[in-house]
Amino acid sequence: MNKLIFIVVIVALTAAAAIGQEKKLSSAPASFRTFFATFKRAVVRGEKHKVAVFTRFPFKAAIDAGDEDNLTKSQFLKL
User: Which residues of 22-55 are buried (b: 16+ CB within 10 A; e: fewer)?
Assistant: First the structure.
């Protein structure tokens, strides 16, 4: 029973957070909403080359346990 309550609470909190994000996104300019929808779709589908088109390189990334490095486009595509 406790597991069920926990799961229901997590689902409810996740849904509430998603609704809040959608409200923020809906007030953004149309050009940004279009960009973000395309970018998000590419990320979800794992299309690295399309994600790279929308990314400014090099960018700082956390590589391992707090270590940071600047990733180039070719390094990003190898991940």
Answer: eeeeeeeeeeeeeeeeeeeebeeeeebeebeeee
Are 10 and 19 in contact by the 8 Å Cβ rule? The answer is no
HEC string for 33-78: HHHHHHHHHHHHHCCHHHHHHCCCCCEEEEEECCEEEEECHHHHHH
Q: What is the pLDDT of residues 28-68, one digit of tens each?
A: 899 999 999 999 999 999 999 999 999 999 988 887 777 78
φ, ψ at 10 (rounded to 5°)? -60, -45
pTM as predicted: 0.60
**Alpha-carbon span 11 to 67, nearest angstrom:** 33
